[in-house]
Amino acid sequence: MKPGRTDDLTEREREILTPYLTDTEATVFSLKNLNPEVIGAALARYSRAPTGFKETIVREFLDEQGKANEVKGSEMIDRVVNKYGDESVAELAVAPLCIEEVSNLMTKIIEDCRIGGSPIEESTRYVLYDVQKNGQWRYVRPANIMESGLGGKYVQTMDFIFEAYASLVEPMKELFQKRLPQEDFKIEVERAEGTLTLKQSELIDDNERRAHRIAYGFTIRSAACDVIRCILPASTKANLGLVGNGRFYSNLISKLMSQDLHEAQSLAENIQKALNHQIPTFIKRAARNDYYATNNNKMQALADALFKGIKIGPNPEAVLLEDQPEDLQVNMLASILFPYVKVSTEQIREVVKSLPEEKQDEIFNTYIGDRKTKRDRPGRGLEYGYPIQFDLIAGFAEYRDLQRHRMLTQQRQDIGISLGYSIPGEIKEIGKSELVQECYDRSENLYRDFISAGMVKEAQYAPLFNHLIRWNMGMNLRELGHLVELRSQRSGHPKYRRLVQNMSKLYLKRHPKMEPVLSFVDQNDYDDGIARAEQEARTARKSLATGVFDDID
What is the rounded average pLDDT of the residues 146-154? Predict the structure, then answer.
């Protein structure tokens, strides 16, 4: 008769378990050498078995020789998730995934999937794009664009922009080297008398001098990257790392399959192929979602008709929206329409208010669509109702930095050119204003050609990082405090620092008693372009202490 509790494991069972657990005796342990599907299946038994994980795994998923029965794990997951619909079980298997050489536009679509996945992407604030790879600049070439009549112009435009970017690197580095000469740059050094902040001339050995050289080089390079990324296009390639659970990946694949962009559909196939080697059963149900695709197209057509001829109104950088209880329906409909138009939430609300009830009902009913199952879920517009809601305008570059906040609801409008762009003052200082202006002119010309050709979604590849984009953030006070205190720190990009400073001021003007929640917002203006120097000084001290240097020497 088998023992009935985890602590009654036999010696043989403990021996069999040893390769798979960090400690067979402990009540807290980690797992190793097990297929994610076996782990997910065994963990799923927690809710339905009186025994613990050790007994479950050794008696249900390992044979007498201690080999994992991966088939049984997959069969159980298939039964629980795909047949019975217990989707929470799909969160019990986690897989790492690397997605390389996708557009920055695509990274935003991926990162919009907020729950169950943790992304990290290649940063244009630290990485230079001044070198070709396999004879080509690093931007995507979607097959449908290349096969269209605009393929040649697309390549010509992108090549020009990347060549211009590469030509800015050294002049921009030289500008910041003048602003912060190497001999004036300081790093933190641990000495017997404590932590000292020292210049190059005060360092005493090769390790300290190496740390100084690396920290200085990184500071100058990052300052240059911060400025010259203004002309990188949304088509710029990036590498993205993800750790996610089965439900996250299943939803992500379905979402990408349902996009109009050729790049998204191709990427979905590649993700599914890669994950079939790790968690095939957990993503078995992933497929194109006709409900999602159909609703999006219908909503876009409805919004185009409603807002035809309406000019974009005033565009302040940040607007803290007013929400009155009696306007609940109008405001929710405005939230529903937001991603499909080019105007502000306030303008959308005015339009919706003027509509007859039948038209308002049409907006709502179109958005809900024809739901066939509980998995046909309407979009994020129904999340309207947060106590704090902002309309924001900033460069696509800054949006990328702030979009990664996920304890809130964000909706963005398509990347375009209608809101204009900004060119950093440093571009004029190095005498490259005409070159950068030509990059914007060519980008906008390509964008218009895409629109004229009916390639509306593909047009988003053409705008540059400093073209302005509008998005909406809804959040509670706790998340606002986290967002503005974190993103206002000196090491942040000056543009998004100013944006979140403005957000905090707007909120406190309306709710001054909430100041303690935002008390660590840094309202200082560090407009030297090298504000991360202090951070790199501290990083250098850590490198000296550990002997592990954070950058290539």
Answer: 97
